[in-house]
What does this fold into?
Amino acid sequence: MHALELRFHKHIQNRFQLKPQHHVVLGFSGGPDSVALALLLKSCGCTLHLAHVNYQLRGANSMQDETFCIAFSKQHNIPLHVKRLKPNWLKKGLNLQTEARGIRYAWFDACKRQFNLQLIATAHHADDLTETVFRNWIHGTGIIGFSGIAEHRADVIRPLLPFTKIEILEYLRYKKIKYQIDESNLKPNYERNHIRLNIIPKIQTLNPNLQHTIYKNSTVLQTLVGGIEAHLKVLSVPVKNGFQLQRSLNKYSILDLSVLGFAFNEWGCSYIQIQELLKLLKPDTVFKPRTFYTKSHHIYVERDDILIYNANASKTKFEYVFQNMDALKNHNMFKVNILKQKPKTYKNDTLYCCLHKLKFPLLLRHKKTADAMQPFGMNGHKLISDIIREQKLSQFNKDLQLLLCDNENEILWILPYKTSNYLKINSNDPGPYVKIKFKS
It folds into this structure.
């Protein structure tokens, strides 16, 4: 048995407790890293599947990679699942690396679910880890960035992180195994390639074992990050797309404040913002509600709480169209009943109207700045923002408030707080009538 195989078997037992009964899907490009990992995982006896994505970005070379993957799977008797994208799938203005990564991991996860597998493995190695750490350092980062690539997070494992590219290639030469070469990795067009080809070799003249040094540092920092994240869960209450810190109920220790200071830094806050936020965590601090914006998070300071949300959630503009009554009835957000008799009581979480007054298609959307409506039982129109303010919602939830509108963009309902006078049932209005109850 090759020395790398012995090290690998010992590593996965110590780090992942990987056993023959484990079922793993491996992201498989056909390159040397994924080929080596396929052989190593198979040698451990675990059930293995391969998942390949053909992006069709390199013409005939992309098809050659796919053909190689099919031949490899047959030769080694390992199931292969291929996703081939249509040519020109990348939309203008989108980042290739980001979009490709999203597609890749979505495919791995789909394969894991379809075939009842337990883990996703990727072939990142020590050189990849080193490139990631340097790239994060160049752009500015905190502890998480310096910790590099997580070796085990949720259902994703990266068993090759302790091994260098040179060690992997030597192992394949020893085994006389062929693999594919992506020539785009040999050109310094991308930033990561430039770091790999031009910067790291110069630093290795000072430390020939650079990759192993960074791996050791990474494992220490990953342990530290894990401890900080676990403590942060103790201090906070999870909410949709984020979590909540309760000012009024907690007296934070020095350790708590240190952990929160770390978290605010990782969320992109400046030093001045961090100091202000830590001060605001003291229950006796007097202040006005305000919002801190960073690239990754929105932090809302309310009367009793500090709410932290992922910035991408607040950028999402939601719209859903109900073409007819059947579409409305079949949606899990509402419960719809057709009534013969007029309702005797009215509730804000329920919309009542005459069936003939409901003008489809209906649109469910987020509020806009100048939105207004005439609330039920009131004379004159009122800004939606003023109506919502009375509900004492967080700023984040105010920004994402949902409205139900008809085909003339008349606002019918602020879900689930206020209905409009527009659909009020008058004494002489004939039936049938509609009762639409908001469920969630």
User: Anything to note?
Assistant: The radius of gyration is 28 Å. Residues 236-311 form one domain.
